């Protein structure tokens, strides 16, 4: 009886083994409920993938083979698309974007990430650089269109350029100025003004009108009477107009201002410039002729040209670089954060070892830090390239009307054709855009699968 009881007694270990044995057998044989659970879990995502990605892509390929009326035309839409100058320009601009924007953004992100690792106020620095990511592309486009307006009173970039040019410029500009007496002072086709003949010792009065208040010198002193010098030609250039009216025409009145900074040339009888000078703040000038004889005083046309207005940033030649600058401003923070995350995972002992061996900071950065960051840098570069190929918002918002064709890209051309109900060409452009993005997407998927 005792032996029989001991034979039927089971230890805890044997009980657990008996319980786990069926589970191990089920795991080896396969539990049919596990694939069903996975299928139910993936079904919503698979439906969204089919509805939002696969079906539109397949239908775009199918629709590109038909014209706007629904008639089958084969590859005619593709032939029309590639023969259109707008499509060729869009592909060219996309190529410029791909070559410039991702590389510049990634390099800046790498530099910022390294700096962020070394400066004291890294949190504030990271916040400032990353902040543009919180702004929509549409809002960023409006901001940059305002910054690069050609009018210096609106555009910050040209306002800065004009301010610098005004500080270092050596002449003033009075656009719209004209002589008070056109018979006494002749005006050439280019706007230059020339007096009648003068000699040394004879003061010359050059009264002008038509200078707008915005172009008048600020805090200009009253115009002064020219001095008399027997060996020189003296004169005064002034605004022969008094605020509030009054005064005598052709006469320097007390409340009339001089036009300072104006270039004055002494021209000989054979038309050669014998000497030049600039008017003082009160409009007076003195020129010593190289020889006796008759001369003419000329105010060159540069005095009456428009003042510095900066660059036409939004013109056809600079519109693409301006949009690339806007893209870099937005996405540099993304590149910095991604590369910074990769930098935090690098082996710092290798950097210290390189410094111990005598390498300077540039050599450590180039030969140690960058090679360790290459997988992260590659992911960032490919991601930015995909975003650049699909760029739409900035290209649609920033260029003004006259520059839209010069800055167009494939995505904008596709939208234009769909907006004009040209679904065949629009679908062909959509397929072209898909083919442009697809290699980089596959490359990105490959990097993710490799664990990069």
TrEMBL record:
Region (Disordered): 1-28
Residue ranges crossing the lipid bilayer per the database entry: 41-62, 95-115, 127-148, 322-345, 376-398, 418-443
Residues annotated as domain ABC transmembrane type-1: 91-444
InterPro entries: Ig-like_fold, MetI-like, MetI-like_sf, UgpAE/MalFG_permease
PROSITE patterns the UniProt entry points to: ABC_TM1 (PS50928)
Annotated SUPFAM superfamilies: Cna protein B-type domain (SSF49478), MetI-like (SSF161098)
Regions of compositional bias (Polar residues) in chain numbering: 1-12
UniProt keyword list: Cell membrane, Membrane, Transmembrane, Transmembrane helix, Transport
Entry-linked Gene3D superfamilies: Immunoglobulins, MetI-like
Name the UniProt record assigns to this protein: Alpha-glucoside transport system permease protein
The species this protein was found in: Arcanobacterium wilhelmae
Taxonomic placement: Bacteria, Bacillati, Actinomycetota, Actinomycetes, Actinomycetales
């Amino acid at each position: 009886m005792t032996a029989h009881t001991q034979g039927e007694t089971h230890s805890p270990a044997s009980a657990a083994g008996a319980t786990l044995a069926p589970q191990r057998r089920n795991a080896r044989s396969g539990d049919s409920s596990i694939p069903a659970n996975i299928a139910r879990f993936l079904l919503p995502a698979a439906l969204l993938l089919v509805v939002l990605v696969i079906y539109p892509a397949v239908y775009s390929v199918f629709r590109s083979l038909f014209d706007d009326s629904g008639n089958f035309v084969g590859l005619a839409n593709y032939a029309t698309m590639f023969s259109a100058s707008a499509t060729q320009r869009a592909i060219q601009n996309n190529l410029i974007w791909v070559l410039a924007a991702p590389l510049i953004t990634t390099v800046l992100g790498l530099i910022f990430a390294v700096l962020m690792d070394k400066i004291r106020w890294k949190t504030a620095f990271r916040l400032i650089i990353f902040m543009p990511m919180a702004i929509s592309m549409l809002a960023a486009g409006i901001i940059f269109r305002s910054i690069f307006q050609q009018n210096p009173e609106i555009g910050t970039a040209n306002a800065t350029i004009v301010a610098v040019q005004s500080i270092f410029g050596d002449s003033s500009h009075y656009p719209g100025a004209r002589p008070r007496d056109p018979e006494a002072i002749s005006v050439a086709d280019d706007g230059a003004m020339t007096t009648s003949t003068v000699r040394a010792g004879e003061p010359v009065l050059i009264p002008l009108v038509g200078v707008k208040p915005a172009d008048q010198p600020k805090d200009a002193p009253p115009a002064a009477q020219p001095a008399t010098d027997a060996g020189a030609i003296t004169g005064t250039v002034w605004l022969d107009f008094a605020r509030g009216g009054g005064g005598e025409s052709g006469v320097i009145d007390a409340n009339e201002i001089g036009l300072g900074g104006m270039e004055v040339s002494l021209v000989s009888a054979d038309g050669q410039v014998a000497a030049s000078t600039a008017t003082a703040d009160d409009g007076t000038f003195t020129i010593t002729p190289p020889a006796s004889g008759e001369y003419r005083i000329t105010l060159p046309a540069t005095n009456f040209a428009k003042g510095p207005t900066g660059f036409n940033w939004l013109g056809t030649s600079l519109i693409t670089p301006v949009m690339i600058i806007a893209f870099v401003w937005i996405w540099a923070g993304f590149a910095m954060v991604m590369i910074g995350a990769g930098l935090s995972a690098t082996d710092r002992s290798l950097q210290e070892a390189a410094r111990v061996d005598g390498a300077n900071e540039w050599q450590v950065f180039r030969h140690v830090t960058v090679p360790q960051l290459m997988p992260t840098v590659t992911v960032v570069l490919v991601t930015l390239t995909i975003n650049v190929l699909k760029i739409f918002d900035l290209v649609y918002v920033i260029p003004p009307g006259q520059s839209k064709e010069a800055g167009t890209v494939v995505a904008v051309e596709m939208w234009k054709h769909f907006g004009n109900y040209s679904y065949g060409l629009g679908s062909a452009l959509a397929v072209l855009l898909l083919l442009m993005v697809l290699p980089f997407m596959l490359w990105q998927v490959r990097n993710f699968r490799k664990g990069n």
